[in-house]
Amino acid sequence: MSEKNGPGGQRGAERAGTAMRASVAAKARKNRPEAIRLGASGVIFHAANTVILALFMIAVLFPLVSVISRSVSSPSAVLNGRVTFLPVEPTFRTYLYVFRDRTIATGYRNSLLYMGCGTLLSVILTVFAAYPLSYRNLAGRRPLIFLFTFTMLFGGGMIPTYLVVRNLELINTMFALILPNAVIVYNMIIARTFFMNTIPAELLEAAEIDGASDFRTFFGVVLPLSGSIIAVLTLFYAVGLWNMYFDALIYINSQSKYPLQLVLRNIMTSAQYQSQMVEATGQVSDAEMMAITEALKYATIVCASLPVLALYPFIQKHFTRGIMIGSLKG
Amino acid sequence: MSDMQSHNADIGGRRAARRKKRRRARYLARKHWQLYLLLAVPVALLITFKYVPIYGVQIAFRDYSPAKGFSGSDWVGLKHFINFFSSHQFGRLLSNTLTIGFFTLLANIPAPIVLALAINECRWRIFGKTVQMVTYAPYFISTVVVTSMIMQFLAMRGGMLNGFRDMLGLPAVNLMADPSAFPAIYVISDLWQRTGYGAVIYLAALASVSPDLYEAARIDGATIFQKIRYIDLPSLMPMATMLLIMNCGSVINVGYEKVYLLQNQLNIERADVINTYVYRMGITSAQYSYSAAIGLFNSVVSILLVVAANQIAKKASETSLF
Fold first, then answer.
1. Residues B50-59 as b or e (16 or more Cβ within 10 Å = b)
2. Predicted structure pTM score
3. Which residues on B lie below 8 Å from A160 (Cβ)?
4. In 10 A of CB A90, how many CB atoms?
5. Lowest-pLDDT range, A11-25, A76-90, A266-280, B74-88?
6. Do A208 and A257 fall within a single domain?
7. Same-domain pairing of A182 and A305
8. Domain residue spans in chain B?
9. Greater confidence, A203 or B157?
10. With 0-12 CB in 10 A as exposed, 13-18 as middle and 19+ as buried, what is B97?
11. Whose C-alpha in A31, A55, A84, B297 is 20 to 30 A from the C-alpha of B154?
């Protein structure tokens, strides 16, 4: 058995080696004095490089800032195209309408519920799957891993999956949204790579020699050391569930259960919905109604991305780490 | 005779070894029952929601009726496939799908590499970090929000695009109503959303380049361009090849969520791909077997593309996914 696991173990060691080399290289790069000498062409290169970076940044930022600006500009300025980049006649009035809207509030509540329950379930199950599969002496480990990774390559597709969910009578329940993709195999592989690379095998052996059961080793030794991977998984799943649209479109059919993304979509496309919303604001003239409708769209777009954008500075560090673990896996 | 005997002994020895191995496996399995218990729920979900649907793919060859179930419905062979291939939709869907998929694939190779190299070469660290953080942000914005933004920007009244055109004295255009603009809208917004994400992956690969190489380049007096040409780019090649292989499947498996969200009655001629058609036929019109057949065709072609790309890459560069 141990011989059979030889190659796997070796590859694991190689992976650990790559990870270590990566961090050493990063450190070395930080301390490295100007490695390549900077001639006249170098100066030009760096000027050009800075311009390229600035262009990338502007290309990404422009639409984002412009949406935020439009959401806080006066509705008539938005409709007449007077807003390009910065807010014109700033006002937060449209946000008041958005906050007062009953459907948006319901959507927010539903999305938070789906995100909370789904993330909790997914993180627990992903870790539960990843740890045993990272354990080198587990009989049948390879076929089990194949069982998971095969689904990355081939699946039944939208219709058979829909029929399974329907036959289980999960349509129009939260479970249709959180159960089918509870364990995303890519995330499971990241977690497994983390366990293999960062939890020292000696530690597990020591726990085993001390007579600890697998449960005790897992909950008492491994999990306390796995804070960072749990953070990465939590963020991966939470963002995915918050942004989910298509599953909800297929599986949820009563409006009271719509997540926020579906509500946002309705606001963007349904004229009937828009007029309902504007009527609630008490505007009378047609021109005013049209202007408010436009401004409302922008404010709703901002509100729907708010939770993710607010967490972004914190999230991006962990996401970067997750991608690094994932890519070092090779 | 003695040959025979030693041969038998050999077999016996091997058999004994195999038995021993099996016994040890059984012993380990019993000892680690708790680990299998941890795996139980994830595996149960995997089987229910991934493998049962794979078993259910057979409805592509049957006339599915809910009462008779996956394996009890009437067998019709290739009827649904033939219907699809001979329908007037087929050519249109395939060409739309391949156009969008191919240009998305093509555009997404150079952009993240250029961004990663630029960030890597940036001497002003805080600026580089900021660019990385900002360009990565759109990846977390939901498809619904992105498509809503696109529709707002391209709107006839108050949209940003027509604002610019107005400034330049050009007449207003409605690109959302122009079928021929659809592939460009899709590809450009995809670039906007994913370039930063791709760059992070390449930056990870650049961080693992051995510092010895840079040291040697410095001693040899290499210029920045030589360093990029002979060290950075070659060390990004394996990652680029792997991503390319993986993404080959998406040439036909185009992200249907975004296409669906950008569709309207005016642009549907070009804004309809195989996957959105599957949704319309399957979920909206309840033609389960017909749409399952189209879905199966889609995933088989997708796998073939990945495997073919993998073989080509293996021959050409010795990098491969599997």
1. bbbbbebbbb
2. 0.85
3. 52-54, 56-57, 59, 70, 292, 295
4. 11
5. A11-25
6. yes
7. yes
8. 79-317
9. A203
10. buried
11. A55
Tell me the ipTM for this assembly: 0.86
Average pLDDT for residues B256-285, to the nearest whole number? 92
Chain B, nearest residue to A291 by Cα: B158
Tally the domains of chain A. 2
Instruction: Determine whether the interchain pair A165/B291 forms a contact, defined as Cβ–Cβ distance below 8 Å.
Output: no
Structure-token pair, residue B161: 């695009």
- Provide the pLDDT for residue A282: 66
Nearest to B135 among A57, A218, A324 (CB): A57
Domain that holds residue A209: 93-328
Question: Would you say residue A87 lies in a domain?
Answer: no
**Taking CA A215 as the corner, what is the angle to CA A214 and CA A220, rounded to the nearest 5 degrees?**
105
Q: What mean pLDDT is reported for chain B?
A: 88
Task: Name residues 152-191 of chain B within 8 A of A (Cβ).
Answer: 152-153, 157-160, 162-163, 166
Q: Which residue of A58, A159, A177 to mutate against B (max B Cβ within 10 Å)? A: A159
In this complex, the residue of A60, A144, A264 whose CB is nearest that of residue B192 is A60
CATH of region B79-317, choose from 3.30.365.10, 1.10.760.10, 3.10.150.10, 1.10.3720.10: 1.10.3720.10
Q: What angle do CA A87, A92, A97 make, to 5 degrees?
A: 130
Residues of B in contact with A327 (CB under 8 A): 201, 204-205, 239
In contact, A139 and B28? CB cutoff 8 Å: yes
Q: Considering only CA atoms, which of B215, B216, B274, B206 is closest in space to residue B237?
A: B206
Residues A41, B222: contact at Cβ < 8 Å? no
- Shortest Cα distance, chain B CAs vs residue A51, angstroms: 10
Q: Are residues A48 and A130 in the same domain?
A: no
